[in-house]
Amino acid sequence: MPGPVSDTAPSLPDRMRAFQGPEADELRDLADKMDAATAGFYGEPQTHTVQQFVGAWARARRRWCEVTGEELV
Fold first, then answer.
1. In this predicted structure, what is the pLDDT of residue 2?
2. 69: phi > 0 → left, psi -120 to 50 → alpha, else beta; which?
3. Residues 64, 12: contact at Cβ < 8 Å?
4. Total structural domains within the chain
5. pLDDT at 46
6. What is the spatial distance between Cα 39 and Cα 47, in angstroms, rounded to a whole number?
């Protein structure tokens, strides 16, 4: 079981960008989309809906778990 989330732990997009393997380009693209959705959701004016924000996170997280074998939940 993973430990608690901390402020010093690398974020999911950071871990995706650091990944070395055949899926690295795909993971970097998903990390960029997740960052764009995060910035758009929290920005002023808001350019992304909650559905877009959560959807980008869910797609990135699902693929990360498929590639690394990390448990999804």
1. 56
2. left
3. yes
4. 1
5. 98
6. 8
